[in-house]
Design goal:
The chain is mainly beta. The protein is built from one helix and eight strands. Strand 1 and strand 2 form a beta hairpin.
């Protein structure tokens, strides 16, 4: 299985599900306590899920996680420690998925790309949702 956790000094920065990851049954990799659940759905042909909806439950979310799946192209995600030093780079290609959880990151496009991106809303605008970290 090709699932990877990117962690440093006790901070969980990201989870990666590589395109070649296969599971026999549905599996969520994120902890049950995570405000954003990241995993793979898997069922055999013929499976039918009964019509349903999800309970409306009030939740308090104090972090903003962002997940994206590369549809085409190549993109690098770079991770930075609290001092602004890059400590890791992950290169994602078609079919790879990443969940950005905590800590500073940047995105560098290597080949023209398109990604499906999902994050918690509402979006409050770049000034309220993003904190730029100086790197020199």
């Amino acid at each position: 299985m090709s699932y990877e956790v990117i962690e440093r000094d006790g901070t969980l920065y990201a989870e990666v599900i590589w395109a070649d990851t296969r599971v026999e049954t549905t599996r969520f990799f994120s902890s049950a306590e995570s405000s954003f659940q990241f995993g793979l759905l898997a069922h055999e042909a013929g499976f039918v899920e009964a019509p349903h909806y999800h309970h409306s439950v009030e939740r308090e979310i104090n972090d903003l996680q962002q997940m994206f799946v590369v549809q085409r192209g190549v993109v690098a995600v770079e991770f930075y420690d609290p001092d602004g030093e890059m400590f890791r780079e992950v290169v994602l290609e078609t079919g790879d998925a990443i969940n950005l959880i905590h800590g500073a990151h940047s995105v560098r496009v290597i080949e023209d790309m398109q990604c499906i991106s999902v994050k918690q809303g509402p979006f409050l605008g770049d000034q309220l949702d993003k904190v730029n970290v100086g790197t020199e």
